[in-house]
Records
---
Amino acid sequence: MQIFKPSKTNDSLFQKYETMLKEAMEAVHKRLHFSPFPEMPSPKEYGETAEADQKQKFESQLHGKFDRLKQSSDSWLTSDEESPYTSKALSLSYPTLSSADAYIKAAEAASQDWKRTDAKTRAGILIESLHRLKNCFFELAFATMHTTGQSYLMSFQASGPHAADRALEAIALGYQELTRFPDHVSWEKSAGKFTLKLEKYGTNIGRGLALAIGCSTFPTWNTMPGLYASLIAGNAVIVKPHPKSIYPIAVVVGIIQEVLSENGFDPNLVMLAVDKANQPITKQLAEHSAVRIIDFTGSNSFGTYIENLPNKIVFTEKAGINSVIIDSVDDLEAVAKNIAFSISLYSGQMCTAPQNIYVPESGIQTKDGVKSLADVEAAIVEATKGLVEHPKAGFAVAGAIQSTDTVERIKKAAGLGGKVLLESKPIANPEFAEARTQSPIIIEIADDKRDLIKGEMFGPIVFVVPTKDTAESIELAAASAREHGAISCSAYTKDPAVMEKIALQMAEAGTPVSFNLTGMVYVNQNAGFTDFHVTGGNPAGNASFTNPEFVVKRFIRVQSRVEG
Amino acid sequence: MQIFKPSKTNDSLFQKYETMLKEAMEAVHKRLHFSPFPEMPSPKEYGETAEADQKQKFESQLHGKFDRLKQSSDSWLTSDEESPYTSKALSLSYPTLSSADAYIKAAEAASQDWKRTDAKTRAGILIESLHRLKNCFFELAFATMHTTGQSYLMSFQASGPHAADRALEAIALGYQELTRFPDHVSWEKSAGKFTLKLEKYGTNIGRGLALAIGCSTFPTWNTMPGLYASLIAGNAVIVKPHPKSIYPIAVVVGIIQEVLSENGFDPNLVMLAVDKANQPITKQLAEHSAVRIIDFTGSNSFGTYIENLPNKIVFTEKAGINSVIIDSVDDLEAVAKNIAFSISLYSGQMCTAPQNIYVPESGIQTKDGVKSLADVEAAIVEATKGLVEHPKAGFAVAGAIQSTDTVERIKKAAGLGGKVLLESKPIANPEFAEARTQSPIIIEIADDKRDLIKGEMFGPIVFVVPTKDTAESIELAAASAREHGAISCSAYTKDPAVMEKIALQMAEAGTPVSFNLTGMVYVNQNAGFTDFHVTGGNPAGNASFTNPEFVVKRFIRVQSRVEG
């Protein structure tokens, strides 16, 4: 007998992907390199005509209806999306329902079968959706580029293979947790002359309807972990993308709906709920009593509102103020080049991009002797100029600026009262003459302007902060992380004791540190399976991709027992 | 190199208990019977003179200072504790500090070494404390009996071996989660012609100071899981017992402090913060910004206040309204006897005790044909009378009533408007003539009084609720669990389809069901390692002893990386 019989099981897809799932579960725990989806957009990996075909698909999708969703809808809405490369509207329209209630009713109805099926069925369907998504990675790249302003290569990698890695990681850890305890045990206990016997049956119950709120800069990478984690745990999900970055995640939702349909599940299990900036529906959805789980990426103010909603299980990634601590280095030029790349990459619009660079006012030790603060500043400025003014690398690294607010912020930064070490300028883009671009502005902050370093200056705005010594640098960086949040930290030191101190003090402020990066690894990078993204231990966010907490909070375990 | 070096490691105790810890980790996952601490107070297991020696220790402790704590203090406070068996004050005094701030400062200072030591050192010390506690199980039994009113046997089992099981379970799952990911990996990734290499180092960081708020009825069983889970995760803990039930947990805290001291750790890592009902300090502690984790067992109103405190990680067990659903049975008399025991055990003061018994008004199928509602009621009434009036079993099962409020509630219940099927009477206790006792009152609730079943009537107050049919019984029980909380459910049915329906509908309301109990297992019982206690899925509480969520929320994982 089995009192919790799953309904509608279908493990054919599970069997197809069982090996991959096992590898993924192992990778989650070994934390070595694992990347099942090739990260280079090479014809060899993805097919000779894939890029051209999908570019064509992207272009013919513009100015039209996104008709690939299988969800219930009653009208079409033309989105706010516009390309940071052309400043033109994408003129895309998406199917919508007329109210938050309508989305919630449809999603809840669709969840009935899903919540009663088993983890194998769910895992198979979800991994299949990632495999189909692979056939859209180039379209995703173009869609991401023309909504977020990311460069083409970053768009491909972040929205395609890297987002799929993160989703697979969430599926794998979710599957592991769902199957962690036996569904049936024959329990016996000796009680003197006789033996007590019970049959115990266990089942997992999803916490209920989930809402995944996306951001403007990483529409799939930041949304897919929570989306897939909620799904593997048995919950329906309403995806509420940022009004300016819908197209990429719409492709993802469409594919999941397609696989659900083909396997006999109601596609409304995942619904795309599109809105416009001047008619937002996020709060109506978030505050609805039926919504039990919320994943959020975005601003501090909205994130804090979400965190404070009563009776919700909330996973947030908000803003971080990331630090670079320079104590001592071998090769200053190599260090400066690495930092220049980090602050220029996607024009500082990554949540992991550095903002405040702490340098002792007495200078630093290098293999070429002591270099002064001015030397360090000059090296970073030169390396940054060299990168952004490079005719091939500059525009390819910096991409474009997603929001005009960011452009305004950069322009105002020069007047903040610091010493401008490097001015921000447009970066010419050979393909897109109208691209919204700005190179990094680098500003030395005087002692009396230190309040500036406590606020996130989203975009390519970098402060050099002269400090008494490295001890003060660490103190400022750790305090900033504790009080205002941080997602990354980069540090340079040749002294093992200083390294330990930085690592521990930043860890206690919930911040991982990357030490002595001078090569092709950058502090901004954070990879599925090996790196935890955000620790959940400071105000930059309360969740981590993908630690056990990220999945176990999405379902409960119930055991019943039968006297036998 | 290792950038996160633990401080003050000491794995000698870990080595002593490594086998036990492994067995415990295995038991957590197999969920079969595992009970490392013998549950019967037998001389063979605990020593010929243990009971007499510890009774003597208990008696000489009364009317005196509890001077076994090693924590900082500046004065003594005579507690509100009084025995439900004698109605006399225990006249015990405990060391206190003058303010919430003083406890917090002391605990935070003590946490510095603990948070930087390793999981092995912590696990060894914590398991050693349980082994020393074993030598106090009889004293714990007397202390529990004379604060909670539990019978002697229940006091021994619940506060001794069963509470130690639950603590060990939390240590084991905590240890497993803390050691789940490698502390060091040499990461490599091929990037075309060269290979990127990083050394990655991981560490766990406790979330911060914890507060464990105890209840009046199960001072160790309900407090030790959260206490030990916070400790294994690296956090200091302030234990705030119920003002009427301090002595048992004071013994536990004293022993942990002793083991900490012996192993070079500051005993203030665990502090007992005693207060009086008319001068409570719980809110001052709970609202303090330094308190990051709160474990709470107690009333709905206070529990909801705790759950709504901003920026806390909260684990609650509040009140549940537990149901019995009778659909069909073999042997009505055996069923009635099992139910009678469940409602009489510790006079209904267990969080798992049944309150509402749903019976179809048309009666039920039995092996002897259809029995009417009146037959079912009569059988339960007769079985209950037989048990509570039994000169040896009655007082031993029912124990005493912890609070005079409960006595008042029982007395008022007769006037609630239902049909009283069995009146509550005092139960004579041969040893304690003054014992505060009341046998169960059983009341049939008419349709127009059904609002009564929605409120918890703490104590031996039982409602029989006639329903149209079993479908309505399930509906009412599930709705009550969803809306008002439930921790247990007992159901009787011979129909597998009905069993499935009950199990699933109650599971979806976050409630485990015990089916067809007629022997020596009772719905009230919930054992470490095999049964999850509370699911976290309805208003009766947001946490579960001990699922992964119960431990993983108490620390974060931080990984740093070094280019090498």
Note: The two ends of chain B are 11 Å apart (CA to CA).
---
Amino acid sequence: MKTFDIDCKLVYEVGGLAEFFFQIEAARIPEHTILSESFEVTPSIAVPREYLPPNSHNRSLRVHAEAGTTSIVYRARVVRRFEAPDVDAPELAIAELPDEVMQYLLPTRYCESDALFGMAQRTFGHLPRGYGRVQAIVEWIREHIFYQVGQSDVTTTARDVLANRVGVCRDFAHVGITMCRALNIPARFVVGYVEFEEPPPDFHAIFEAYLGGKWILFDPTGLAPVENVVRIASGPDAMDVAFATIYGPARMTDIQPNIGEVVTEAARPLASEPTQVPLAA
Amino acid sequence: MKTFDIDCKLVYEVGGLAEFFFQIEAARIPEHTILSESFEVTPSIAVPREYLPPNSHNRSLRVHAEAGTTSIVYRARVVRRFEAPDVDAPELAIAELPDEVMQYLLPTRYCESDALFGMAQRTFGHLPRGYGRVQAIVEWIREHIFYQVGQSDVTTTARDVLANRVGVCRDFAHVGITMCRALNIPARFVVGYVEFEEPPPDFHAIFEAYLGGKWILFDPTGLAPVENVVRIASGPDAMDVAFATIYGPARMTDIQPNIGEVVTEAARPLASEPTQVPLAA
Amino acid sequence: MKTFDIDCKLVYEVGGLAEFFFQIEAARIPEHTILSESFEVTPSIAVPREYLPPNSHNRSLRVHAEAGTTSIVYRARVVRRFEAPDVDAPELAIAELPDEVMQYLLPTRYCESDALFGMAQRTFGHLPRGYGRVQAIVEWIREHIFYQVGQSDVTTTARDVLANRVGVCRDFAHVGITMCRALNIPARFVVGYVEFEEPPPDFHAIFEAYLGGKWILFDPTGLAPVENVVRIASGPDAMDVAFATIYGPARMTDIQPNIGEVVTEAARPLASEPTQVPLAA
Amino acid sequence: MKTFDIDCKLVYEVGGLAEFFFQIEAARIPEHTILSESFEVTPSIAVPREYLPPNSHNRSLRVHAEAGTTSIVYRARVVRRFEAPDVDAPELAIAELPDEVMQYLLPTRYCESDALFGMAQRTFGHLPRGYGRVQAIVEWIREHIFYQVGQSDVTTTARDVLANRVGVCRDFAHVGITMCRALNIPARFVVGYVEFEEPPPDFHAIFEAYLGGKWILFDPTGLAPVENVVRIASGPDAMDVAFATIYGPARMTDIQPNIGEVVTEAARPLASEPTQVPLAA
């Protein structure tokens, strides 16, 4: 159990009427307790509205903007619980998979698991089934794909990444997801905040695979331990969980998605004497 | 559009292992924007967890406590939008009511609309149907039921209130709901924060009736304008929306559910120059 | 795994415009496969509509009727899977109960578990916790409450039944639920079809308790094995799952909720040669 | 209001253990009343299970099969209500769109509305906004894309169809959806049963656009009136609503998705004398 402070700032130059949908809030999931959170929008021409789709933990913040500079600051203190994964977790047979995870076996826009079926089978089909096979996919990606910013963009799919052998965290995650699905392992995309040494602070993308009846996190970039990721959202691929979706003329001029671990009494479980959880402010 | 600051403190003496379920957080509904919120639990032996039932806006905070003093402080800044009710809103025929409101016509533990069918018909059956009839119910309650603290408790039902002609806001709301349901008008219980002159700050209970295809708020106590109520939760009756449900040995020693309106630039709609929304802290 | 044919007919004399809500269809739950179903409404002045509340398996059929005789016939063939209960299932501590079952600990209109807390503690509080304690409640009800038709009605609550010591299946279930809740065991009401020897065919009410992380069925009447009940709906108590809720002038003139087990090849699991599942008609 | 009989048969040669997910059942939506339905699976080695995702009307039938011939027959009688579209329905501004339709503006695997943004703007950007513009898209598709079976497959996307100018109903729908999304009109894919003169009976794909606050159906193929389509499912594109998704070795050997209109008293609204709705069998 760790406690993190998030301080995320996004700034846009807006050229006219625009509608923003931000996914930057910590997810409301059992693994999180959100001790405090706040946001500021400048200018305050319209108060943001939050939208939580039914049966989802992906919170979306809708902001209506006019011409000028628009900024949003989101701050939160989040306690994050983490259970170490079972490294012996088996792959389930299709017949054992629950109905609600079946959608995570389908190809999606960025994860063409049908087109890459043969590649996945040739590369990973012979390996022993289970947690170790997904771990092998992760290591293969780390070994074969070059991590470099600026060589991929929002149109880049797993097939492109495998062809060009270069990408960033989102591309790495898409390849991992695609390989899993092609092997009949349900897999989905996860975005969140994480504290890096290098590169500078940014949103981070990892993925999770459904093994032994649970979702288990994997990070093919190896940039940070998965237990340090504070989840924002998850979905079939990056399309569903963009940190900002914008309709109208707008250009991002600043992005600072900061996060830092809090060393606090709050994280000490089962303290016998009273301890005060300080406010985030 | 108004902005409110909530500062709610509850303190309990706990005699042993206990499990608390608090409903004290501002509801996540389109009429609210929660600019900031935080909570502190003392001692922090276990971090609270929030539960949001599917297809509901009633947030529940679950806290596991041990022997000793347990307190919870919830603070929030909430922008509350309010649309003036249509005073010509009609009662809909049963055939016109949507499926999802039908449950609010059924009798419940505190609102015995079946047993009070005759009374409702005799008293309000002859009045013109529509918003005005619900308003007449509200005025009848205000005239015939004496508002007094300490004459009713958690077992008191609408039938008891009508017999004894005394109660508090929750009892007034139960009577209003019961009369509506007995006239085939869907009605439900609403709790929230409100700023009173008198009595001292407390949670407040009102009700809403389904008229002309919308839920419209009514306050039979007349203690405060309904647009000043920041909703916590709604449900069939008070049973579902208790501010605290406790399993285990615990005694409340302090309750301070404060709320105050914030006079701030944030509430100025469509300001042309940038304005800063200050943090709640 | 057993296969049942349901053939349910309800007839009403309707005096004018009326709106009916029937809960008579087999529940769409994992334990059921509905091989076929159909309904006929006479006269067909309006086609019924089905309503399935979000996150519920309680199907509701809405029928708009005019003056005259209105009848509805529902027929279905349902395969019902059944897992024998774990007779060693423990009662979970409150802290172990999942959020979504907490509502089944609250008192409801027919199950005043708060008012009957002392009675439950005195009678069952000393017994060893677990499946056996719920079984003891069931046996106590069977021994102390006289099963007799016509001595209770739709206003009868668990408290009334305990006072008068007489009732029918719905009353028996209400007492069982109330005792469980007063002992902090989540419990809910279940209605369905069942084949009786005696009395004549009718809807049947039983209850289920949450033990060891699962819902386990109990029938305090002992009239039929619970694995022979084809579930229609479940809810906090009988109020939520009435087989008919009627708004408008109507009088029931016939009720025939028939069910019979089908001895068919369809029920033979893992047959190696092709077998044909015949239609219900 | 029309009544249709569906009689759909699918046959597969299965080479070993396989898991089938069929989406062939009439959707449970307010526009449909399903008077009767049944299915038969041969051989009956395992009874199918139905899955209805939360907040969805897309029913899915899960069948576990072993080596041999596996067939499924689905029969239903469905009353289908239809409201003529408002041909003056406006396109809503982004700011006016409800949260829950925003997902239908995003590019998907088969509908690359981002990549085709320029094409859509050049071709339809100058047209008056509203129902007429979507109708213009439909007519443009009908004029520019050649309807021919066998020139496209399950990997064909809208971009491919626009390049090759050939496709079937699903391709036509994908192009229509893509153009709408590129113009900021929410659009989604709809599959169902429809009675054709030519070609032989098959599942049919059309699309719907969100105009004036409602979903309005369009059929770019012009093969049948949209009011004759009995909906099975809808989703972002064809990926989510395949009539069969199969895991394991299986080959389709027969497909007969028949539908026919029933000329019956049941379709006569508000008949004053009793009329009997005959069973489908």
Note: The two ends of chain B are 21 Å apart (CA to CA).
---
Amino acid sequence: MNMPAPSDLQIRPDGTLRHLLSIEGLPRSTLERLLDAAQTLRPQALGGTALRQRLAGRTVCNLFFEPSTRTRSAFHFAASRLGADVLGFDVSTSSTGKGETPADTLRTLEAMGVDCFVVRAREDGAVAALTAAAKPQTALINAGDGRHQHPTQGLLDMLTLRQARGEDFSNLSVLIVGDVRHSRVARSDIAALRTLGCRDIRVCGPASLLPDAGELQGCTVGHDLDAMLDGVDALMMLRLQRERMVEGLVPSLERYFADYGLDERRLARAKPEAVVLHPGPMNRGVEIADAVADGAQSLIREQVSNGVAVRMAVMLELLGG
Amino acid sequence: MNMPAPSDLQIRPDGTLRHLLSIEGLPRSTLERLLDAAQTLRPQALGGTALRQRLAGRTVCNLFFEPSTRTRSAFHFAASRLGADVLGFDVSTSSTGKGETPADTLRTLEAMGVDCFVVRAREDGAVAALTAAAKPQTALINAGDGRHQHPTQGLLDMLTLRQARGEDFSNLSVLIVGDVRHSRVARSDIAALRTLGCRDIRVCGPASLLPDAGELQGCTVGHDLDAMLDGVDALMMLRLQRERMVEGLVPSLERYFADYGLDERRLARAKPEAVVLHPGPMNRGVEIADAVADGAQSLIREQVSNGVAVRMAVMLELLGG
Amino acid sequence: MNMPAPSDLQIRPDGTLRHLLSIEGLPRSTLERLLDAAQTLRPQALGGTALRQRLAGRTVCNLFFEPSTRTRSAFHFAASRLGADVLGFDVSTSSTGKGETPADTLRTLEAMGVDCFVVRAREDGAVAALTAAAKPQTALINAGDGRHQHPTQGLLDMLTLRQARGEDFSNLSVLIVGDVRHSRVARSDIAALRTLGCRDIRVCGPASLLPDAGELQGCTVGHDLDAMLDGVDALMMLRLQRERMVEGLVPSLERYFADYGLDERRLARAKPEAVVLHPGPMNRGVEIADAVADGAQSLIREQVSNGVAVRMAVMLELLGG
């Protein structure tokens, strides 16, 4: 990890957003402005025609070097409900890219009139690297680069927490559970929580799935989930990729669930009003029990809805709609 | 087969449609209301902007667990000509579904603002089962589930028959030919014909491709096509999947065409004004001869056009547009 | 090669375009009318809503029998910025086509209301052949058929040349370099240059990648690139498919670049104001050096932008928008 914070790439001297590459380096004022905008957009985010003129005539391209129908759909809805044209360009299944550099693919689509690229990439930092190919007025949104960042997920998680617990994060206790080592979601969430003033960030997982200590400075780190639940306001459960078992990082899914799965018994150890988040897609019975996923404390579906609003807010800020 | 008629799932107490899952269990009045609506929509179904406000701001998702570009295109056109946003979500080729339940995939897309899901599934009854995951205001349309039902195909076939032969089906003789055993089209057509009062439904195919007798109660069943053509008003030819040969259910395509293929000679045995339907895609020279497929009695292209109108009618009824 | 010029198929008796199949057989007046229209559309081609009513309510289908995300995207943007509905129908990855003829696939989509098909096919002449299946009012655009033609690429290249060098091509020296034998781009460009009055067309490549002499009548043909650069106004570099190496037509990519790659040293031998074109996607370091691709004389990105305008002009002429 240890990517350089690309704040110089994503923030203009006047403080407005030029690209959205990482939560790292985003000033608190920018983060809060985006969250406020998303909250305002939220009632129109799921349908209707009220916002269709905002980005009418603009073009957004989902440029995916790694496949994802889920994230791509959320961006698709956000853009099209703002009236933008949306093109999906899946390089991972396309013949086009053969021998062509990602920069040339971007330049070509830009020359066709794309104003904003939503980019998912396999390598850490690949989206920031692509900004060098873009014209000054073209905006890039990082929709996930390797294990590095997934900033709109970080934003939607913060929006969901704010709706549940209010805007003051200073007295909030947040516990992140699971495969933090490989998770761009966790990295974005931790950065966002820090920026918003959260002082009690707890990180829990098996040693094989935690990152180097340097990345978690200021966080309380541990391996015993039951011991870390006391007083927790929010639990952020991470998806366990099944390949971790193949890689020998996890002995078995059953064992993982026994040690790190969130079930009702464990949830009862957190604060009574604690909320549960998960970025999806869920492995039910692996990192989360059905009763919790579908229970009253779960905000998982609300996260998804907030995700559309957050992406709208980001696009409007980037494209000045 | 023997799926429970899901009339309780698809019809509200006030008689309006909540989902469209099966022709089985649809009251005649509902069927006829949908056909009337489709007929009214038909002149605008293939283009123009007259209907673009009807579902403006609503979102339709083609959620396909089994690939189909053809049916998906028809639903795409129906929805977009009514002004809806349409998202194609192909689970069969997507990485998203990995480990995620179909219900969670639906709930996620629903949380993004999808109002109506067009669902194709491999298993009989899978679309009806998915309704349990949907919110009260979300509508599902079965676009084909296994061998069970394909209700919009049933509706478009009935609309095509009505246009050719009038609304009174009581004196109509309809002959369905081919692989009825594996055909959701045949099941939907038979149910629709029964509901609309057709009293002479004939079913013809090799024993290996006919369903259990219980399914065909009230139909005239036989294996000799030439012997069943007399007095027929409409021939509904079914597609023969080539895999039936691999499975040993059909000796050869040549043999099948000799026994069950519709050529001009055979068509001449039906009524002079008999019409020919086929759900597509056609295997020319297998279940139908070129001269019949492209002949004056063929309504095959009209079926396709009616398919757009029927799907518009269903969406408008479901979404109250 | 030696396809019959399909002028009878693509031009109506009144001189208007019915299909766009080939640059061969297009009268100069038609070519120039399309280029003039594209030039007029160019300022609106990359975004905005000014043209959205032109094809509102019309439907364009990208019917691709050979995959191409790049060309498909250009047509997608052209159609959608004119307000048309666009459907992508990728037969190469679809299950639909199984056993269905291309003509039936076209007829089916036409029956759903498609007004214009953009067709890419593997076989020379396949798009012209498909016109026989279409209704009189349905238009086809050849988006590349085998090694035969790619007429919108020819048009966009001519538009790019005109912008750089003016409308009089009679004193222009154009050099086409590379795999002419397998290139539909080269065939379209040569035909367009001839029709527009260009008298000095030079073609350079290894003997294994040049077509039969009969195809290049009137062109200056050679194998020594350095010897052919003198006085050249425009260089049209062709993409080298890597499979040519597997086929033994090219010894190595390094060797190819040494002999036929365009670098700064070579470019300096052409006229000082010479421009460089490439249809994309580029193999940097194979047929073109970075310094040239990204240099001041490169019009490669301008070609891409012109490609949207040209496709708009063609669709408007075909659909009478």
Note: The longest strand of chain B covers residues 139-145.
---
Amino acid sequence: MDGVILTPLKRINHPKGDIFHAMKNGDDGFEGFGEAYFSTINKADIKGWKKHTKMVLNLVVPVGTIEFILYNEDSKDFLSIELSSENYQRLTVHQNIWMAFRGKDENNLLLNLASIEHQPEEAMKLDINEIEYAW
Amino acid sequence: MDGVILTPLKRINHPKGDIFHAMKNGDDGFEGFGEAYFSTINKADIKGWKKHTKMVLNLVVPVGTIEFILYNEDSKDFLSIELSSENYQRLTVHQNIWMAFRGKDENNLLLNLASIEHQPEEAMKLDINEIEYAW
């Protein structure tokens, strides 16, 4: 989908605890560092829909499993991507893509390395039933 | 301790899963974005000692509990700090501070928002018994 990049990331085995890469300055999809924050999502709960008009998201899931649904309102395309520490990839979401996400395990954690700081006025929200998707 | 900053961070309650702030561009302790990576540490295992000559670390613990021991070899001071999602703070570690850390829970995860990309030659390592500390 235009505006979406999936980048496989390294998980480095270590006997005392693995290392998980997330993002380097200059990586594909990096558009500057504005803010980093975590979001948790309970099992079976869905957060969304939301789209950003300025922020580029870079999303990594080091704990649990999260299903992301992306919706391009120009092409009317949906894209479903499930990320976890097993399917360990970075999901870059450019501006004007609608996104919702659902927790799949008991504990689910995502890190967003956002290109700008949180600004409520640059994000748009819709209720989950305002974009029809066969969850 | 000189070279170390502790910054309380917001945890925003949400019925579908809480949000945890980590760092904004321009926050106290932010010295540029080089790389973000996760490290896990098994219960009772210790990683360290390590010090960086160029990298500034910004450490956040969204899962589990991790005990950090910092050692300033000039002043011979030790500092012990335990971080978790309950004691949710950002630990900034400037250059030339020795650090080791121990996992306290079953699952422990730290995020390092590092000021430069990983460069093996800028870090120094010592075996855990080479700096005496009453673990």
Note: The two ends of chain A are 19 Å apart (CA to CA).
